[in-house]
Amino acid sequence: MGSRFHHMLPVETRILGKGLFAKRSMKKGETIFIERPLVSAQFLWNTLYKYKACEYCLRALETAEGNARRLSGIPGLSLPHPELCRVRPEQHQACPQCQVMYCSSECRQAAADQYHRALCLGPSEDDPDHPINKLKDAWKSMHYPPETSSIMLMAKMVAMVKQGQLALLHSLFREALYDDHLSRWFVPEGFRSLFALVGTNGQGIGTSSLSQWVHACDALELPAQQREHLDSFIDQLYKDIEKETGDFLNCEGSGLFLLQSSCNHSCIPNAEASFPDNNFLLHLSALCDINQGEEICISYLDCCQRDRSRHSRHKILRENYLFVCSCPKCVSQMDELDVTSEEEEEEEGVAEGETEGDEMEDEMTDV
């Protein structure tokens, strides 16, 4: 969604100082905008562990029943109301050369037009000595789950340049990432700069055919006894999945979004991102009533992190996003001692390896 559409949206960006502001009043629950990413990619470990997603739009490719069987470890599992599953395997298409899968012919063509011709490995898709596979393996060896970004985001950006989309990239990324000098990407210092930009501006994406099926089941109007039976079945299914798979339920990746990346952080956000279409389309929704002229803020922290002390929140934001928060909540707590309580220190020690995963899960709960 390029800048030429901004006049049609209920928000405006103000580049100086970076921010997104409401052009009119909005009600709680209202969709502020829907946006497709400039570029997106599934996480590499997520792909390795057989989370099957469209290579272009990250739409989950497994049926809800197939997804439930794999995650629960119960191969003979049958889901009630299978007609509620929205996955259409008959529409899936593979790249003729490398067999990478897409959810539709439209996604396969869009990928080919934008970047895939440069990245297609053809018969070398499974060749460990191919340079792109070496790049993926090197990334995986340095970034174990829970993942928060992917080297393939940058690989796709380079591929887009190779396929002649430099002018488009220059315009869009200059607006999204505020970098006029794309050529700097290809020297060591520039690559470090690009790496930091992608890391701090990337938005987690989560898709799940099973989650979509559960939402559709919740919307069914059923007699009380049938509702109780269905709810009990779903509760037991999630218990089985937790026992077999743990917390990693979704196809996961990340993307760079032009408008969403303009949203500043607040520890008391008035908007949140979700992916209800089971693909990379980001829906930004109001968490409360928003007045005309008010800044639209999201939170880079999950719910548990937002409940921590000001000192703990600042520590997480400095380490992961390289800034000090001055939102109203942080300003109101300025007189707090800059120390972390013993209880929080113990929790942080236990949860240090879980923080990124919890954050990503929170970003992707409503898929």
TrEMBL record:
It holds the Pfam family zf-MYND. The keyword Disulfide bond does not apply. It is found in: Cytoplasm. Keywords: Cytoplasm, Metal-binding, Methyltransferase, S-adenosyl-L-methionine, Transferase, Zinc, Zinc-finger. GO terms for biological process: methylation; negative regulation of gene expression, epigenetic; regulation of cell differentiation. Residues 9-301 form the SET domain. Residues 338-367 are annotated as: Disordered. GO terms for cellular component: cytoplasm. InterPro entries: SET_dom, SET_dom_sf, SMYD5_SET, Znf_MYND. It catalyses: L-lysyl(20)-[histone H4] + 3 S-adenosyl-L-methionine = N(6),N(6),N(6)-trimethyl-L-lysyl(20)-[histone H4] + 3 S-adenosyl-L-homocysteine + 3 H(+); L-lysyl(36)-[histone H3] + 3 S-adenosyl-L-methionine = N(6),N(6),N(6)-trimethyl-L-lysyl(36)-[histone H3] + 3 S-adenosyl-L-homocysteine + 3 H(+); L-lysyl-[protein] + 3 S-adenosyl-L-methionine = N(6),N(6),N(6)-trimethyl-L-lysyl-[protein] + 3 S-adenosyl-L-homocysteine + 3 H(+). Its EC number is 2.1.1.359, 2.1.1.372. The keyword Zinc applies. GO terms for molecular function: histone H3K36 trimethyltransferase activity; histone H4K20 trimethyltransferase activity; zinc ion binding. This is Protein-lysine N-trimethyltransferase SMYD5. It comes from Oreochromis niloticus (Nile tilapia).
